[in-house]
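Summary of Year 1 activities. Much of the first year was spent building the evaluation harness for sequence design. The harness presents a backbone, in tokenized form, and records the residue chosen at every position. We chose the following record to illustrate the format because it has been used consistently in internal testing since the harness was completed.
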């Protein structure tokens, strides 16, 4: 491995003191414009990067925003793209950190991640679907789709209930009456809101709620398999399914096709999120679009305002039904 370029190397190559280099790279007074330009040219030529930790100790800031996720799955990746785009042209860089991909217990990954990064590596944090609310932090925090809802931390989320209502109402408008629901993780507020929207749409249409038509999907492909089979094993199976996210919806289709059903002729399926896989799937998945990149950008806006002394905000963004080819009129 090549040796790391140090501030001493820059000073030697530029023919100035280490103190002058330090002033130049940290924007302090006492350096002439010509010397500043010369030092910056040498820094670029040598590829010198000052330590984030050392910089934070000197300046009490790092100009880095941390995006903390449990793992890099499609939902988190799209949010990260929005964060990155929103920070273009600002002084901030992005540090993406996955807190629960290693072996061991992952409960409380948010607190551990913040304790490792906060105050020395990042100036503020965006937490993606945190399971708990960190009560103490050395940096401002914005939570995207927090598991416990919008209490406590500044937050950005989608109107889950409205989106689920629209998904279920779409199936009802196609003539479906036996509509199943593959719900998300029962410990997440978003899952409860989506089930609430599903139930409300049934009630508005005068369709009685049947608990046998609700099965756990867990927001995960593997967890959805058993739920998909359970609703299809019913003596009076559904003609349509509203899945609480796209991964569950895609797995619902796989299970149905594996059992000889045609989608959408025999079974209509709607998801939630609109990850790229939804449009790429065959058939294309009808879904409820969360504006994921926009949510990431909005989290940046809220966080930067907080770094400037602004208040915490709770932002709820609209959800939009996107009709594709996985839904059709109920079979006669």
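For this record, the design step produced the sequence shown next.
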């Amino acid at each position: 491995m090549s040796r790391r370029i140090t501030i001493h190397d820059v000073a030697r190559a530029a023919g100035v003191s280490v103190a002058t280099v330090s002033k130049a790279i940290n924007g302090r007074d006492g350096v002439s414009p010509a010397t500043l330009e010369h030092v910056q040219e040498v820094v670029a030529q040598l590829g010198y990067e000052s330590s984030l930790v050392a910089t934070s100790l000197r300046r009490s800031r790092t100009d880095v925003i941390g995006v903390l996720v449990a793992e890099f799955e499609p939902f988190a990746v799209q949010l990260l793209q929005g964060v990155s785009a929103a920070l273009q042209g600002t002084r901030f860089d992005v540090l993406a950190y996955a807190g629960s991909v290693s072996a061991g217990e992952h409960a409380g990954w948010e607190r551990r991640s913040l304790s490792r990064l906060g105050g020395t590596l990042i100036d503020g944090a965006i937490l993606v679907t945190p399971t708990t609310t960190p009560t103490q932090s050395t940096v401002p925090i914005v939570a995207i789709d927090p598991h416990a809802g919008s209490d406590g931390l500044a937050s950005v989320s989608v109107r889950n209930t409205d989106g689920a209502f629209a998904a279920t109402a779409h199936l009802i408008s196609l003539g479906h009456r036996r509509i199943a629901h593959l719900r998300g993780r029962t410990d997440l507020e978003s899952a409860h809101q989506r089930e609430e929207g599903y139930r409300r749409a049934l009630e508005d249409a005068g369709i009685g709620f049947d608990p046998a038509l609700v099965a756990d999907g867990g927001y995960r492909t593997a967890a959805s398999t058993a739920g998909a089979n359970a609703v299809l094993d019913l003596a009076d199976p559904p003609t349509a399914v509203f899945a609480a996210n796209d991964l569950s919806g895609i797995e619902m289709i796989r299970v149905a096709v594996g059992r000889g059903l045609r989608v959408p002729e025999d079974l209509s399926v709607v998801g939630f999120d609109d990850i790229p896989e939804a449009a790429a799937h065959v058939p294309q998945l009808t879904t409820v679009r969360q504006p994921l990149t926009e949510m990431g950008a909005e989290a940046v806006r809220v966080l930067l305002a907080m770094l400037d002394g602004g208040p915490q905000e709770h932002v709820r963004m609209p959800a939009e039904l996107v009709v594709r080819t996985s839904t059709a009129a109920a079979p006669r």
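Residues 170 and 321 are 9 Å apart (CA to CA). Quantitative recovery figures across the full test set are reported in Table 2.
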